[in-house]
Amino acid sequence: MLIWSSLLAAQELVDASGQADIVVIPKGNGIVFWQVLNRGVAEAARASRHKILWRGPPNEQATEAQFKLVSDYLATSARVLVLAPSEPERLRPLVVRYREAGKRVLIIDSELGETPVDGFVGSNNYLAGRKLVKELAPHFPANPVVLVVRYQAGHRSTEARVKGYFDEFEAQGIAVQHVIEGGTTKGSSYRAVTRQLKEDSAINLIIAANESSTEGAVLAVGHWSHNRAMVAGFDISPLLLQSLKDGRLSGIMVQDPYQMGMKAVALADALIRGDVIAPVTYTDTHLITPRNLTTESVSALIGQQVPQAQ
């Protein structure tokens, strides 16, 4: 049962009670990843018998807004909270209160940690991070000077990817010379990467942790025409797709947020029915490079996540 009229609209409930059975609270609404996950939720909601409400802060920087949303819906009749936690440490006490109130909690995208929940749906970020480095290693510069661009401290999903990067670089016998925090926007990532390129013009390999940090890295390298650094990262957007086509980006590990949204709703429905669900449900990740960009399977994935590319 759909309860919003358009993608990322005001998300007001259609019934007079102002209540929902399932509340989905993402980290934000501003980037492609969450917009695609929203479409997956919307598709699954059409087959659900329950009222489903999507309420997200405007962007991933709005952590206070997310905290307030989680707090506000504790007092409603919502039976399942589907949450992508931006600040796991701060949100854990609220999650405990949800479960003490008899509500079920399903975590998506970023794991919450040791706090007991009813299930997790998301990518295996650690293994995906290792795979990105391993698959691209044959194409690395002969003497790599490596810069790893983290997203922001505290985000378990991106930190797991970075741990995967480090472990696979070590397995490949490659040292990581520089590690920086890109921040929460492509602008902050651009500025952070630019500063690092100014400090060490020998950097020739940049691996970033998410959509915004990868976009910032691509833009920074593009604006430093003397620097021919190889760039790779995570997630997809119109800018990153064009960068793959232009050869400015050597590879991205793409998650499947549409599948994540679909599975989250299906599992939330199962929890309401009283079914036992698996504690962890991993969704697919796919490496996209200029070499496989036009294959049928990759074209289908791109069409789902960047519809304007079709």
Automatic annotation (TrEMBL):
Q: Which GO BP annotation is one of this protein's?
A: transmembrane transport
Location of the Periplasmic binding protein domain: 22-274
A GO cellular component annotation here is: cell envelope
Q: Where in the cell is it found?
A: Cell envelope
UniProt cross-references to Gene3D superfamilies, sorted A to Z: 3.40.50.2300
Chief location bin: other
GO MF terms listed in the record are: carbohydrate binding
| UniProt-listed Pfam families | Peripla_BP_4 (PF13407)
| Superkingdom as given in the UniProt entry | Bacteria
> Known InterPro entries for this protein?
Peripla_BP_I (IPR028082), SBP_2_dom (IPR025997)
Q: What keywords sit in the KW lines? A: Signal
> What is the protein named?
Monosaccharide ABC transporter substrate-binding protein, CUT2 family
Specify the species.
Aeromonas diversa CDC 2478-85
